[in-house]
């Protein structure tokens, strides 16, 4: 019985998605594919291709004073306004301590953002995972150049021979041959059942590698999921528990998020996604299966403590989590990346306009963006956390941190022009979808359920659900709506969600419907009637991930 319940929990966590329908979904996917670039790569592009310097050069005698911080604040505020980001937090570190911190705007519940406001960090989780692996290396329990299957025998790709040759180092440096598209197999599961991470790694068995191990670079969140599972196997602890015991708690990161319990305790606020240029709240559950590559989070103060430890060779306030040599190894560029070089979880390059060595990482989840830029040679760093994200404007989101880092070093900030596609594509896609819907016309009405005495009326709760959905769809403001009806009452999709408000209170942890492929078109969430499919609308989490792309970078 316990095993059956665990299996059910894992199944229910597979996907948290709904869709318009196959035809409209195809149009939306086709439109969105034009902008699919991992956030990390997009930010690297922003750093190498930024244009149009703004403002006069900032080389002044008060570069370390309040005047410089006011200018940095003003620049970041301007960037937030440009991208329509409702809220953000900024920290500046110098000489091993933070010298400036600032909150901007509001969180997803309308409260002022402060240094204690929790965010999700996206791929800034990867350096945390890299540190965890290096701890096991220094403890003699893992060898970077041993095959992964030495420690994680269940790891396998579609090509068994290549699977046997992939080493721990290959995974850390994104040179394993696992394609970037494999992230779609493990991303956006929202699976918090026991063994969720191990299950996601098992599902990689159907992924074919695109290159022999060690031959080429391909940014891979899937590879970091495997590393998380390896840490679990070697340490005998759930990955989030290991992080708390060995890294997060020793560093005094008191409000960090690495488990579902942390997520609920810290009451992580919803992020925002762009809907026709307007930020719309997006409230998703936590994803335990995604912690190694994207779902670590916490406040600005928490991330500041982690970065201070990185700048000081793996220690903070007398507590050491990694040797200075091991820390330096994670921050060294081991392989050529898409732009610059890649270390063991960190990107490595040069800050444009200053020539300084830069160790950095950015990450994005639907509704959240985070960036850390360290300048180790001058013992400085900049952190920017934002509660919004737009894939087609990824470079603009990176401008806030890159510009602040340049200003901190006495250079002029730069900005990225808005990609016209980001402005035109939503309207074009909506127009094509409207034309397609008009051409297809309404589907046949389902036969009404009958009894001997004639049509059988709907139960009271079903009538309430139908009225609720109809009322949402008739909303003249035209906000996107997910009509997700409870499986037990009406063969639909879990919970009713209005993106203007997020998930109904208390629903985030339970919004983990079963993913039965092929049962309900793009959403794959169980049997529905034609009428259910007709009233189901687009998922704020695009069906792109179901086509082999991940939202987590």
From TrEMBL:
<dbReference type="InterPro" id="IPR050789">
    <property type="entry name" value="Diverse_Enzym_Activities"/>
</dbReference>
<feature type="domain" description="Beta-lactamase-related">
    <location>
        <begin position="72"/>
        <end position="391"/>
    </location>
</feature>
<feature type="compositionally biased region" description="Basic and acidic residues">
    <location>
        <begin position="462"/>
        <end position="476"/>
    </location>
</feature>
<feature type="compositionally biased region" description="Low complexity">
    <location>
        <begin position="516"/>
        <end position="527"/>
    </location>
</feature>
<dbReference type="InterPro" id="IPR001466">
    <property type="entry name" value="Beta-lactam-related"/>
</dbReference>
<feature type="region of interest" description="Disordered">
    <location>
        <begin position="488"/>
        <end position="553"/>
    </location>
</feature>
<dbReference type="InterPro" id="IPR012338">
    <property type="entry name" value="Beta-lactam/transpept-like"/>
</dbReference>
<feature type="region of interest" description="Disordered">
    <location>
        <begin position="446"/>
        <end position="476"/>
    </location>
</feature>
<feature type="compositionally biased region" description="Basic and acidic residues">
    <location>
        <begin position="498"/>
        <end position="508"/>
    </location>
</feature>
<protein>
    <recommendedName>
        <fullName>Beta-lactamase-related domain-containing protein</fullName>
    </recommendedName>
</protein>
<dbReference type="Pfam" id="PF00144">
    <property type="entry name" value="Beta-lactamase"/>
</dbReference>
């Amino acid at each position: 019985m316990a095993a059956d319940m665990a299996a059910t929990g894992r199944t229910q966590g597979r996907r948290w998605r709904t869709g318009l329908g196959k035809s409209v979904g195809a149009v939306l996917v086709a439109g969105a594919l034009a902008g699919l670039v991992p956030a990390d790569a997009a930010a690297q592009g922003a750093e190498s291709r930024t244009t149009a310097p703004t403002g006069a050069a900032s080389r002044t005698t008060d570069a370390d004073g309040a005047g410089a911080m006011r200018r940095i604040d003003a620049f970041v505020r301007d960037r937030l306004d440009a991208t329509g980001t409702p809220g953000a937090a900024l920290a500046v570190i110098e000489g091993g301590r933070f010298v400036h911190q600032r909150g901007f705007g509001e969180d997803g519940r309308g409260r002022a953002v402060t240094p204690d406001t929790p965010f999700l960090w996206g791929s800034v989780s990867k350096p945390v995972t890299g540190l965890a692996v290096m701890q096991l290396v220094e403890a003699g329990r893992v060898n970077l150049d041993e095959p992964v299957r030495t420690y994680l025998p269940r790891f396998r790709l579609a090509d068994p021979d290549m699977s046997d040759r992939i080493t721990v180092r290959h995974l850390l440096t994104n040179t394993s041959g696992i394609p970037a598209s494999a992230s779609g197999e493990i991303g956006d599961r929202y699976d918090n059942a026991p063994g969720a991470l191990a299950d996601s790694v098992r599902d990689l068995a159907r992924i074919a590698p695109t290159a022999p191990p060690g031959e080429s670079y391909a940014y891979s969140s899937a590879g970091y999921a495997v590393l998380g599972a390896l840490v679990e196997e070697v340490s005998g602890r759930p990955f989030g528990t290991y992080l708390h015991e060995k890294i997060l708690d020793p560093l005094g990161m008191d409000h960090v998020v690495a488990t579902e319990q942390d997520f609920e305790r810290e009451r992580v606020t919803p992020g925002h996604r762009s809907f026709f240029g307007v930020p719309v709240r997006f409230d998703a559950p936590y994803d335990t299966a995604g912690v190694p590559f994207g779902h670590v989070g916490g406040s600005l103060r928490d991330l500041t403590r982690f970065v201070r430890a990185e700048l000081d060779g793996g220690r903070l306030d007398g507590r050491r989590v990694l040797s200075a040599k091991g820390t330096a190894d994670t921050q060294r560029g081991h392989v050529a990346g898409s732009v610059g070089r890649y270390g063991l979880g960190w990107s490595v390059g040069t800050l444009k306009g200053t020539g300084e060595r830069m160790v950095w990482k950015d990450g994005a989840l639907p509704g959240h963006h985070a960036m850390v830029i360290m300048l180790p040679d001058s013992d400085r760093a900049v952190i920017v956390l934002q509660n919004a994200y737009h894939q087609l404007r990824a470079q603009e989101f990176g401008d806030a941190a890159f510009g602040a880092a340049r200003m901190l070093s006495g250079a002029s900030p730069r900005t990225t022009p808005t990609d016209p596609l980001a402005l035109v594509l939503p309207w074009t896609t909506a127009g094509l979808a409207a034309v397609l819907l008009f051409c297809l016309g309404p589907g046949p009405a389902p036969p009404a359920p009958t009894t001997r005495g004639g049509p059988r009326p709907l139960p009271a709760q079903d009538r309430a659900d139908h009225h609720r959905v109809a009322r949402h769809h008739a909303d003249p403001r035209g906000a996107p709506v997910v009509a997700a009806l409870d499986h037990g009452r009406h063969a639909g999709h879990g919970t009713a969600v209005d993106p203007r408000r997020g998930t109904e209170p208390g629903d985030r942890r339970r919004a983990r419907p079963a993913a039965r492929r092929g049962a309900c078109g793009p959403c794959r969430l169980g049997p529905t009637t034609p009428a259910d499919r007709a009233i189901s609308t687009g998922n704020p989490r695009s069906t792109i991930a179901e086509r082999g792309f991940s939202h987590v970078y």
